[in-house]
Amino acid sequence: MTADSVPVLTIDGPSGSGKGTISRLVAEQLGWHLLDSGALYRAVGYAAGAAGLDLSDAAAVTRCAETTKIRFRDPGDGGETRVIVNSHDATDELRTETAAAAASAIAAIPGVRTALLDKQRGFRRTPGLVADGRDMGTVIFPDAAFKVFLTASAEERAKRRYKQLKDKGLNVTLAALLREIQARDERDAARKVAPLRPARDALTIDTTGIPVAGVVAAVLSVVRPA
Ligand code: DC
What we know:
Layout: E1 8-12, H1 19-30, E2 33-36, H2 37-50, H3 58-67, E3 70-73, E4 82-85, E5 88-89, H4 91-94, H5 97-106, H6 110-121, E6 129-133, H7 136-140, E7 146-151, H8 154-167, H9 174-190, E8 203-206, H10 212-223
Parallel strand pairs: 1-6, 1-7, 2-6, 7-8
Antiparallel strand pairs: 3-4, 4-5
Helix pairs in contact: 1-10, 2-3, 2-5, 3-6, 8-9
The structure holds 2'-deoxycytidine-5'-monophosphate (DC).
């Protein structure tokens, strides 16, 4: 099987739409690989910050994206995948809202997106790939056989994020999260390169008020029609 014939399911959508959880569960059910592309942007934002770069310096941040070594390590005990950035386990740092904001800023730099292109396509391996991101169906895997776009109201997404971060012991307020989510949505949708939007051939699923199991079933039915 050539890489291009390996089936891909793209799951795009804004932050808090449930993409991360849904993608992981769907990949598990299908027995396919998982690409968390947001983690790559977070890793570059983190590496740029750690190197003391000005995040608006496109040339310097692009060089950083080209040279930063990012590895995913499965702990093997069913636990969370670790993200290793230049041999430092940065998993905890990458979860923070600061890392999310840095990722959103550097993701608007065209050179950064180009630097991450081949890395993302390299995840396409048998028996299949679930690709989670913003531009999986539009730019990275436009030929994917299966495409969904998850949405939810900004309020619902802020609430989910709030619960997630609280569960992880992080100190945040719902109002601040809602503001951050709206600002990030705007930046991700307005940027010139690979703006956040559904692929023309994607099925949009509004997850507001739908339990996780229901969304997983809806996404799986795209790959395996009843
Ligand atoms: O999914 P996430 O919250 O980990 O993504 C963090 C940021 O990275 C988000 O603001 C937009 C950016 N991103 C992107 O531009 N393209 C992707 N494929 C994934 C994430």
